[in-house]
Design a protein that fits this description.
By secondary structure, the chain is an alpha/beta fold. 51% of the residues lie in helices and 10% in strands.
Length: 435
């Protein structure tokens, strides 16, 4: 019989009361139950994208750790269990807590991963003798062979990431192999639609789902790139595989662009700034900047001020306040392919320099620092700007002009905002476009 909230054991009562009385734990607990219900097991962590203030506060107090202002919170289940045991002197497991919390029986019947040679050998044989023959002569087979060739490292990674289930991992590997062999060709498909079609679960391949990390590793091998560590890098990898991720909304704000899309051109004809999502941009086959010059500013206030000052003129201006996200990278790629030069101007701080250097690394000679050098820093520097943090001593620039600016920033020890340059930037745009 399920343990009810009213008649549970005295040992569980204070734990369940604490968890139920704080709404900040609801999504975490639901995430744990969801994993049990969908996969019959609970993995090493629950991920909470876009956490609410209630969740940030509840978890910060519970773990005595700062979880505020994070785009994604990852809660390790072993750590969560240990903290409950420490706070409430509890000797049971998560199965008992989930059963009492939801008033329904929850149990896991999985075979734990074990570091003994016997378990490791059996695991290796299962991949070699069962999985590999099923996917012979497919692209998935190459991935399986790569794993077998590095089984010591691979096994250890899985033991750390999925410590509750060894047989389940083999089932997950089979699922990944199946979808790896049917990736879209010559078209873009929503990740959720792709997962629904092949796995009957729209969320099965999201980067924050249990199956997601294995799928991402397989894609990284398939496309010969590093395994992503950030959600936006995963979005880029999905896109390379012909999949449009629904998990991260990637968008860019711009003013003035000529494309082969009627809706986009509508805003251009109105002379208004607008937002394009990654999905919008993936429908475009070309993008032409006015005068073959794209002006990129990091500061949203600078973007708005320039749009106001240059009202009535034709120019291409992009706001890069979200960094080089997949949407911005896609738009700049389309512009660069049409022969446009990319003029970048940002705040003179670590964030701005890092962003500028990423654009330079991605687009090379098409990148031009715009009012973003030593002379302009000296012009802007007042001595009253924010102190430069001392936590990025390892930061280095690949572009020579940016490296020189970084050296000066470190010497002065202060940042400088690009906002006072609005008038000069507006004059530059008009002069370079002959307006």
């Amino acid at each position: 019989m399920p343990t009810s909230y009213e008649n549970m054991s005295p040992e569980l009562t204070p734990i369940i009361q604490h968890l139920k009385n704080d709404s900040g734990f609801e999504r975490l607990m639901s995430g744990m139950l969801d994993l049990y219900n969908r996969y019959g097991r609970c993995f090493s962590a629950v991920r909470l994208p876009r956490p609410t203030l209630e969740e940030e506060t509840a978890l910060s107090v519970f773990f005595k750790r700062d979880y505020y202002d994070q785009a994604l919170i990852r809660i390790g289940l072993a750590e969560f269990e240990r903290q409950l045991q420490k706070l409430f002197q509890f000797d049971g497991g998560l199965d008992e807590i989930l059963s009492a919390y939801f008033g329904q029986p929850v149990s896991s019947h999985n075979e734990p991963i074990n570091d003994s040679p016997r378990y490791k050998d059996a695991f290796t044989r299962a991949i070699r003798d069962d999985l590999l023959p099923r996917f012979e002569d497919t692209s998935a087979a190459a991935w399986l062979r790569e794993m077998l060739a590095h089984m010591r490292r691979t096994y250890r990674q899985w033991a750390d990431q999925f410590p509750h289930d060894s047989k389940g991992i083999l089932s997950m590997l089979a699922s990944v192999c199946e979808v790896l062999n049917v990736l879209p060709k010559g078209q873009l498909v929503r990740l959720s639609d792709f997962a629904s079609l092949h796995l009957n679960d729209a969320r099965a391949l999201d980067f924050h789902s249990p199956l997601g990390p294995l799928f991402i590793r397989a894609l990284a091998f398939r496309f010969e790139t590093a395994v992503p560590t950030a959600p936006e890098d995963s979005v880029r990898l999905y896109l390379q595989a012909g999949l449009l991720s629904d998990g991260v909304i990637s968008q860019v704000t711009l003013r003035g662009i000529k494309t082969d899309d009627a809706a986009c051109n509508f805003y251009d004809q109105l002379g208004e700034a607008h937002v394009l999502t990654l999905e919008n941009l993936c429908r475009l086959t070309s993008a032409q900047a006015y005068g073959d010059k794209v002006f990129i500013v990091e500061n949203p206030l600078v973007f708005s001020a320039l749009c106001e000052r240059l009202s009535g003129y034709d120019y291409t201006l992009i706001c890069a306040s979200d960094g080089l996200n997949p949407a911005l990278e896609k738009l700049l790629s389309l512009c660069a392919e049409s022969g446009a030069m990319l003029y970048y101007s940002g705040n003179m701080d670590y964030k701005g320099l890092t962003m500028a250097d990423k654009v330079y690394l991605r687009f090379g000679k098409a990148f031009i620092p715009w009012r973003y050098n030593r002379a302009d820093y000296e012009l802007l520097f007042t001595g009253n700007d924010y102190l430069l943090p001392d936590d990025r001593k390892d930061l280095a620039m690949h572009n020579q002009e940016l490296a020189s600016l970084l050296s000066l920033l470190r010497k002065k020890g202060k940042t400088a905002s690009s906002l006072p340059l609005v008038s000069v930037l507006a004059e530059d745009i008009m002069a370079m476009l002959g307006l």
